[in-house]
Structures are given as C-alpha cells and as structure tokens.
Amino acid sequence: MDIEQFREYCLSKKGVTEELPFGPETLVYKVMGKIFALTGLDSEIFTVNLKCDPERAVSLREEFSFIIPGYHMNKKHWNTVNFERTPSKMASELVDHSYDIVVSGLTKKLQTELAQL
C-alpha cells in the first residue's frame, strides 16, 4: 500500500477527515475528531502511526520487524508500521483495527452521529 492508496483507504471510512494540525509535514486522519492514523510526509520511508490494543501491539512488535513502538506517541497504545514492508492486506487490517479502537472509545453521542452519516 503506497501513500495514495493509504489516503484513499482512510478517507473511504465513515466520519474521517484529513488534516495537517501539526504542520505541513504530518498528515493526520481523524474519525469524529479523534486521531486514528498519522504519517510524516517528509520521511524517506513511508511509515504510519496506528492505534493498537496494548496486548496486540506488543505481539505485533515481537512478530514483525517492520512494526515498532509508536514514534512520538504513547508506546503502549501506538505502533509505527513501515508500510513499505507491510503486505497490503495486513496494512488495511491494521488501519481498520486503529479506526475501530478509536470509534469504540467515542462518546455514545459521537457514535450515534457517526452511525447516522
């Protein structure tokens, strides 16, 4: 999955916005105002920070060398994934997992608004 496929995939999800809140070099994807994915546009290697269940985060890091603790993020809840080395199906699944975790943590009001979109 390249950066354009990543963008399209993220933006195809319900309630997602694309923003640059940290400056022009960091592309951020939010669902109902909450971050679920971000990537640096000035990096030589295409990596993405994704939210992850803490136990699964550790398991993924142990199993795959291209997944490391989240760069500049809470390392318990975030992984940095090298998308240049990640199979496309797995990349999509990791984005889905991040999105789902963030959605499950939304308030009931925001979850209702999301469901109505």
Automatic annotation (TrEMBL):
Keyword line: DNA-binding
Keyword Signal annotated: no
SUPFAM superfamilies, A to Z: YjbR-like
GO molecular function: DNA binding
Pfam families to which the protein is assigned, alphabetical: YjbR
Family annotation (PANTHER family): CYTOPLASMIC PROTEIN, CYTOPLASMIC PROTEIN-RELATED
Protein name, UniProt field: MmcQ/YjbR family DNA-binding protein
Protein source organism: Flectobacillus rivi
